[in-house]
Amino acid sequence: MHPLEYFNKGKAAECQICGKQEVTKALCKNKHYVCNECHSCGVKAIIQICLNETSKSLMEIGNIDGPRCCKRNSFLSILTAIDYAADNFGIYMKKSNIQCNYSNKNNQCIENKCPFYT
Q: Within 13 Å, how many C-alpha atoms sit on residue 46's CB side?
């Protein structure tokens, strides 16, 4: 990333991504310019990825009947994220055989209905 150069008076510039012509009061030192719309696209894409992964995790959590369990929900979310990374980005991570060691601390544990119960 190059440092920005600021001007008191606006200058015509062309967005390096979409080609839109605009007036700006800031350019990088190499005279490159990216319009606000293109500049925010990366943030929007990251937010969309997070929303997609969260919805998939919530679906997995919702598929198991029983009371809320923070450990089970965390384990399911991690496994769902591993699948999401593989399916969407070609990033492959090893899935461990998760075994819950907390069932004796949860009076509402669903035991054999839980995929992590040991």
A: 5
Query: Using CA atoms in the order 44, 46, 52, 56, what is the torsion angle rounded to 10 degrees?
Result: -160
- What is the rounded CA–CA span in Å between residue 38 and residue 17? 7
Strand partners, 13: 22
pLDDT digits (tens, 9 = 90+) for 26-57: 998 888 898 888 888 878 888 898 899 999 99
* CA gap 47, 75 in Å, rounded: 22
In this prediction, residue 10 carries a pLDDT of: 94
Q: First-to-last CA distance in the chain? A: 50
Confidence of residue 1 (pLDDT cuts 50, 70, 90): low
Containing 4, the helix (H) or strand (E) segment is strand 4-14
What DSSP line would sit under 49-94, residue for residue?
A: HHHHHHHHHHHHHHTS-SS--HHHHHHHHHHHHHHHHHHHH----P
